[in-house]
Specification:
about 30% helix, Alpha-Beta Plaits, globular, four-stranded antiparallel beta sheet
Length: about 100
């Protein structure tokens, strides 16, 4: 198992229930493949520049312990999700 941080931005124009369902679905991708996820809601923030005509978004940070295959599947599925403006996956160094 390896440690990762995943940050993503959800569209602000969505209803609160849709945002929660989107985040839950993304967590499920990791947990279904025997990974562990800790979610941090960072709230709504202004973007540095418009992305897909949006000027703000809801930021989320996942701290993940999972195998590479789970992260690869997460990356594939988050790219297909139209509710996500941007995402970034960082592999943390082993200490």
């Amino acid at each position: 198992m390896e440690n990762y941080e995943i940050m993503f931005i959800v569209k602000p124009t969505l209803e609160e229930s849709v945002i929660k369902d989107t985040v839950k679905a993304l967590e499920t991708i990791i947990t279904d493949m025997k990974g562990k996820v800790t979610t941090k809601d960072m709230g709504k923030r202004e973007l540095a520049y418009p992305i897909k005509k949006e000027i703000s978004g809801f930021y989320y940070l996942f701290t993940v312990e999972a195998k590479h295959e789970a992260i690869a599947e997460f990356d594939r599925k988050i790219r297909l999700n139209e509710n996500i403006l941007r995402h970034q996956i960082i592999k943390l160094d082993e200490e």
